């Protein structure tokens, strides 16, 4: 009997950074379903590229329309449903829009990067944020 190959859940997201008053700031979202603070991201829709998904998910979760700047470190882990998940991330720059919560996100905020590292619920997100800091210089 053949073993079934578990399908990897594919997702994408973005680290949106701006120059704050004293230090660069990054957008984090709070998801009440998981009671966590994380980088905006979500699952790919059928026929969508990773890049399209990243831009769509960031806009849906934060209200910000962004552009891709550079690809960052990716993340692989087992999701809340026990499935393997692979997430690609990009450094993003805001083009327009205003920060606001959404259907899946009850709080969204700009935080200085050092504060964001402390706020993030997952170490894997800290690694992604660190890669954004390295890319940005």
Description:
With 137 residues, the chain is an alpha+beta fold. The protein has a single domain, classed as Alpha-Beta Complex (Nucleoside Triphosphate Pyrophosphohydrolase), CATH 3.90.79.10. 25% of the residues lie in helices and 42% in strands. It contains three helices and eight strands; from the N terminus they run ββββαββββαα. Strands 1, 2, 3, 4, 5, 6, 7 and 8 form an eight-stranded mixed beta sheet that branches. β2 and β3 form a beta hairpin. The longest helix has 14 residues. The chain is globular and about 45 Å long. The mean pLDDT is 94.
Distance between the termini: 53 Å
The proportion of residues in beta strands is 35-45%
What is the name of the CATH class?
A: Alpha Beta
Radius of gyration (CA) equals 15 Å
Task: Tell the overall outline.
Answer: globular
How many strands, what sense, and barrel or not for the largest sheet?
8 strands, mixed
Helix content: 10-25%
- Secondary structure class reads alpha+beta
Average pLDDT score = 94
Count up the domains. Answer: 1
Question: Which fold name corresponds to the CATH topology?
Answer: Nucleoside Triphosphate Pyrophosphohydrolase
Going by CATH, the architecture would be Alpha-Beta Complex
By CATH, the superfamily comes out as Nucleoside Triphosphate Pyrophosphohydrolase
The sequence of SSEs as H and E is: EEEEHEEEEHH
Number of helices: 3
């Amino acid at each position: 009997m053949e073993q079934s190959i578990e399908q990897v859940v594919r997702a994408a997201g973005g680290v949106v950074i701006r120059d704050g008053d004293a230090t660069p700031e990054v957008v984090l979202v709070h998801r009440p379903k998981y009671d966590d603070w994380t980088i905006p991201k979500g699952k790919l829709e059928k026929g969508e590229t990773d890049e399209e998904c990243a831009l769509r998910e960031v806009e849906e979760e934060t209200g910000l329309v962004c552009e891709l700047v550079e690809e960052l470190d990716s993340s692989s882990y087992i999701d809340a449903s026990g499935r393997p998940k692979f997430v690609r991330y990009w450094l993003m720059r805001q083009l327009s829009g205003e920060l606001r919560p959404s259907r899946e996100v009850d709080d969204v905020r700009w935080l200085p990067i050092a504060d964001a590292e402390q706020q993030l619920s997952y170490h894997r997100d800290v690694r992604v944020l660190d890669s954004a800091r390295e890319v940005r210089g």
